């Protein structure tokens, strides 16, 4: 399962390098070089904090855990996890906080952005509506996306689209969407919704999407404020790696030969495990990182307008 993420990461780097003519460093950070000290700082910090939280819960409620340690399977787990889990988390970070966040940000400087976004939303609702009413096979789905793509291109290039883009209300919408917040929210929503197939959703219900989308927002805010992905890469790698090695459960996506096995009923503690990280732990982490790296100008970095230096029609910052 993890091998597919390694292949995806390689493919993403090739697309960025040869299609977009962008370097690995440019995809990662606005700094001249990648600051790996940032990566290791947050990796160790969150590794210690997350592991401590699990161990405290273990000693407070030992009846909820089973000692699952077996030397040989655990050593194989360490080998696989240490190599491939960072590749899995790096693929997700480079896809969402790197490729998509930059791409959506740049596209938001185009006057066509609101129109295209609205069309995509209509297509999404249409797709799920048709899927609910009819059984759509692979060929049907492929044909559907070919048709809506062709129709979309025709509409965007039509005179009707030109007239719509001249409306004052459209220009107001453009100014609203041409902000860093847009790429932050869109990438966080996609990041969260792509986890909807995880077994945790079946076990805990749709409410767990608050955690997934909230995690996406946390990682996105971290990336925008630090003007680079190093902290998000380190946090995500530590979160998945230490969890895989320390604790597992029958109802999670990562089922491993970890040291502990969670035997508790997740429905009893679901609200605490979902809302406490998003509304307590993550804000505290942002506060710590803000102090360590002296973040400032929050309003501009999170809410400010986006400038695309490669276009003549630049949008000013306010």
Automatic annotation (TrEMBL):
<feature type="transmembrane region" description="Helical">
    <location>
        <begin position="40"/>
        <end position="59"/>
    </location>
</feature>
<feature type="transmembrane region" description="Helical">
    <location>
        <begin position="142"/>
        <end position="160"/>
    </location>
</feature>
<keyword id="KW-0812">Transmembrane</keyword>
<keyword id="KW-0482">Metalloprotease</keyword>
<keyword id="KW-1133">Transmembrane helix</keyword>
<feature type="transmembrane region" description="Helical">
    <location>
        <begin position="117"/>
        <end position="136"/>
    </location>
</feature>
<keyword id="KW-0472">Membrane</keyword>
<dbReference type="GO" id="GO:0008237">
    <property type="term" value="F:metallopeptidase activity"/>
</dbReference>
<feature type="transmembrane region" description="Helical">
    <location>
        <begin position="71"/>
        <end position="88"/>
    </location>
</feature>
<dbReference type="GO" id="GO:0004175">
    <property type="term" value="F:endopeptidase activity"/>
</dbReference>
<keyword id="KW-0645">Protease</keyword>
<keyword id="KW-0378">Hydrolase</keyword>
<protein>
    <submittedName>
        <fullName>CPBP family intramembrane metalloprotease</fullName>
    </submittedName>
</protein>
<feature type="transmembrane region" description="Helical">
    <location>
        <begin position="181"/>
        <end position="198"/>
    </location>
</feature>
<dbReference type="InterPro" id="IPR003675">
    <property type="entry name" value="Rce1/LyrA-like_dom"/>
</dbReference>
<dbReference type="GO" id="GO:0080120">
    <property type="term" value="P:CAAX-box protein maturation"/>
</dbReference>
<dbReference type="Pfam" id="PF02517">
    <property type="entry name" value="Rce1-like"/>
</dbReference>
<feature type="transmembrane region" description="Helical">
    <location>
        <begin position="231"/>
        <end position="254"/>
    </location>
</feature>
<feature type="transmembrane region" description="Helical">
    <location>
        <begin position="274"/>
        <end position="293"/>
    </location>
</feature>
<feature type="domain" description="CAAX prenyl protease 2/Lysostaphin resistance protein A-like">
    <location>
        <begin position="74"/>
        <end position="242"/>
    </location>
</feature>
<feature type="transmembrane region" description="Helical">
    <location>
        <begin position="204"/>
        <end position="224"/>
    </location>
</feature>
